[in-house]
Amino acid sequence: MARLAAATLVSGLVAAVALTGAGRAAADDGTAASQSGATATMGGLKTYGAAVVHGDGGDEQVAAGLFEMSVDGGGTLQTYCVDLHNPAQRDAKYRETAWSGTSLGANKNAGDIRWILQNSYPQVNDLAALARKAGVGSLTEQDAAAGTQVAIWRYSDGSDVDAVDPQAEKLADYLERNARGQNEPPASLTLSPAAVSGRPGGLLGPVTVHTNARTVTVIPPSDAALSGVRITDKAGKPVTTAQDGGKLYFKVPDDAADGSAELTVQASTTVPVGRAFTSDSRSQTQILAGSSESTVAATANATWAGQGAIPALSAEKDCARGGVNITAANTGDKPFTFELVSTEYAIPAGTSRTVTIPLQEDQAYDFTITGANGLERRFTGVLDCKPQGTDAGLTTQTLSAPSPASVGGAGVDANLAATGGDSATGVITGVAIGLVVIGGAVLVILRRRENQQTG
To answer: Which residues contact 101 (CB under 8 A, 6 or more apart)?
Structure first.
């Protein structure tokens, strides 16, 4: 497994970088880039039918339909896959992500996918009406989910794929034929910028709230009682709630020691249809088809110092550039200099610069930037920008006994390892059992030889 590392100590800053292959996931989701929106856990396929993917190596039959995820803090999400050739892993952790951090960012047909989501199941839950529009006799939930997923795959992956059930196939054709580009939906909740900096004794910010929720709850820094840092409005008045477009500030006492703090805002709302969800464990990328009232959250941090370089650090994936953008804003009175992957960067006082760290597809990254006075920002994740899997073994799996009548229901069938669930578990278990059997056989053979030699 390839590993790159770079570290330097310049103007009180150390930047350490570790890059690993796709086989190793990020070490800690909790220390990844600033949270924005909903986070959830994959449950698996819930409503689905069968589809056939036509490729150079022949036809593969896969499960196609709706996934369900449980939102951290409460709520449920329904999603479709936009990453056909990678498997979905049960219990994988997902976070709401901008299209630019996924394969959708460079996909000119991403807007067509959103149209499909808005005009098909489950957003359109009147299946009789949907069937009439599609020109089919009738649709079951399984047909509707399979047809919708097939139409999405044609745009997300450019795949030659058909639904097995004739009714589902007609729906897929109707959706593909009528899709019209739609804009990317806004995040359910985000803070901009994700990092600010400045000198103590004033207001650091503003940090602007962007949300579709009516109000958000403002959660102050965990050590506010000790540090004296408050979250306020522009007039310096403490706030506990905010609305879309609201501006928040970190009020740092005059005598505060150099340091940093984090602000969290939380709300309950529905996540907009078409939002992307990605996982650092290389579980396939999802796109939102439906949301219950769900808990969403966002964070931002502030750094302050009396003198020298005062950096505000943030990061985000950029699939168009094939890497991770690290933005460093220096509100201090000295240059902010650091090194990443053998390249040195300098941000003059009073300026901001974004540095793109190039990565290979499917590569895990782990950036930790630390400095004086306890400054430490860590960014972890996996660059997953292409819909096609690049790892051997991360390919679509076949159905052993294709039968539209047997496909559907509440769980993932043992033969539906397709894009659907935690099929790797069965493979791992089988391999483990095989190794145990082989090991036992080797021991038996060695003991026989030992007995023959001593006999």
So the answer is: 276, 278, 316, 317, 318, 319
